[in-house]
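Annotated sample (chain length 158).
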Amino acid sequence: MSKKQLEESKKDFCCIYLDTLDANRAAQQCGVENGYEMLRQKDIQQYLKQTRKSVRAMVQMEDVLRRLCQIAFSQPNDAVALACGQQYDKIENLDLAAVAEFKRKDEQTEVKFIDRVRALQVLGELLSGKESNADDTVRDFFRALELSGESKTGDGSA
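Output written by the structure step:
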């Protein structure tokens, strides 16, 4: 592998990692053996730091509003069909915006949805012009999303 190909592979790894937050998945998609080993490399850490900084600057309130709308107005149909065993060619085309957690073990399936009423409350507060509470409200909402995805054991694993 040439130096240029190696650099491109590292950048691809970083992009996939930032998208999925799964080091092994990013490594697998880039043809690398160990994602956690990649994360230890100084140049990877620097690239991730720079990318996160630029992403932070790119996310605007409109993006937050758009995502809240996706969550609040999404339909459960695709998630229910998936839970009932319907097969799909492209799962990325499904509307799963309001799904917090999806577990399948043996013949049992469990789907946990994000609190859409809470998403509507946050949207209402943001759109009503209550700027002083907007940042806290968004922060609280996304913290609630994080917590809704954690397992009951509290270790964050699904």
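Annotation: Residues 85 and 113 are 18 Å apart (CA to CA).
Annotation: Helices lie at 3-20, 23-30, 35-40, 42-58, 61-73, 77-83, 116-127, 131-149.
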